[in-house]
Amino acid sequence: MKKNFTFKFDTDMMEKVRVQAKKENRSLTNFIETLLINHMVDLSENQDCRKRAD
Quick check: 52 pLDDT over 90? Predict the structure, then answer.
């Protein structure tokens, strides 16, 4: 299930995000959601690597 959220971002950064989303032919929402998903996957993989190293 998806839920709506409201965030405040720096105007200049959001313009850069909008431009990049357009270059990738994505909606702004899809672009930001993909960034967050990829970041969370990276965090999870890094934690798994650290656990294996211990």
Answer: no
Mean pLDDT of 29-36: 96
17 inside domain: yes
Look up the domain containing 26 and give its range: 11-49
Structural domains of the chain, count: 1
Instruction: Of 17, 49, 48, 44, give the one whose Cα is nearest residue 33.
Output: 17
Asked if 25 and 34 count as a contact pair (C-beta separation under 8 A), the reply is no
Q: Do the Cβ atoms of 54 and 43 come closer than 8 Å? A: no
pTM value is 0.78
Give the closest residue to 31 by CA, choosing from 39, 41, 20: 20
